[in-house]
Amino acid sequence: MQAPDIGEVVLHHTADAYSIGIEPYLMFEWQRWHDVHIGPLTLNLTPTRHVIFMVIAAFLVFLTMRVAGTKLQSQRASENAPKGFANAIEAMVLFVRNDIAIANIGEGGAKFAPFIMTLFFFILYMNLLGLLPHGATATGNLAITGGLAILSFLVIELSGVVKLGPAGYMRTIFPSIPGITGVAGVAMSLFMAPIEILGKLVKPFALAVRLFGNMTAGHFVILSMFGIIFLFGELAVWNWAIGLTAAGLVLGIMMLELFIGLLQAYVFALLTSVFIGLIQHEH
Question: Where are the chain's structural domains?
Fold first, then answer.
């Protein structure tokens, strides 16, 4: 029996596709829709596996907040302390609001808290859905993490325009260097402009690549560990030992992935808050 191509298997199950499941078990596949032509552009709007799980994550965020909010209202109406699911969600929401959004943005941070909380829970659900059987990690798609990063970039920069005004915002691109005035000051300000613009673009790039890399790497490791079982399948004497060892390692990595899914949602929300705070209080 020929050993499977582990590299192809890993890439197949981590890449986006027009199917859900593992062939030939519980495999659901659909056809691409016809292309849509808009002038010189050709678009295809067929939902892919990652898009479907992204929509599921969005629905779960809505459902979580709806159920938790209803339970909290009911418990407080009966003058009972929050408990159970509602209490857990309230604790997470307060943590994101107070210790991430307000703590890093500062004055006016409360108005950004709903956006930061949405980012946190949305990314968290997308990370965790990929650990389910036949699931897919939408944040393992660079297009999705890039879209989230662009959204954060727009919020960061537009909040700077609103807070500082157009003239104040332009000073974040053409900074005034302390101690340098006159022609030298103008020249230094113009010299620094490309660096400042590059710094603004690096922030969303780092957000997108960090989330994408961390979530993809975990699945690569898990699938590669399973591949060891097939690579050493011909060693019949060691089949049980190899299988049990690989399964134990995969279980440990899966538990680590639960923590990483939570950590990466926290890091994305935290850094977005930090960047908003930096531009809000730009000197």
Answer: 48-141+209-280
Residues in the chain: 283
- Give CA–CA dist 113/100, Å, rounded: 8
In the chain, the amino acid numbered 5 is D
pTM for this prediction = 0.88
Backbone angles phi, psi at 138, to 5 degrees: -65, -30
Rounded to 10 deg, the angle between the 239-280 and 113-129 helix axes is 170
- Written as six digits, the tokens of 58 are 């969005």
User: Rounded to 10 degrees, what is the CA torsion of 19, 24, 25, 30?
Assistant: 20
Place of tokens 């989230």: 148
pLDDT of 233 over the 70 cut: no
Round the average pLDDT of the chain to a whole number and report it: 85
Tell me which long-range contacts 228-235 makes (C-beta under 8 A, separation of at least 24).
Answer: 230/3, 230/4, 230/6, 231/3, 231/6, 233/1, 233/3, 234/1, 234/3
37 backbone dihedrals φ, ψ, rounded to 5° = -105, 120
What are the tokens at 37?
């032509």
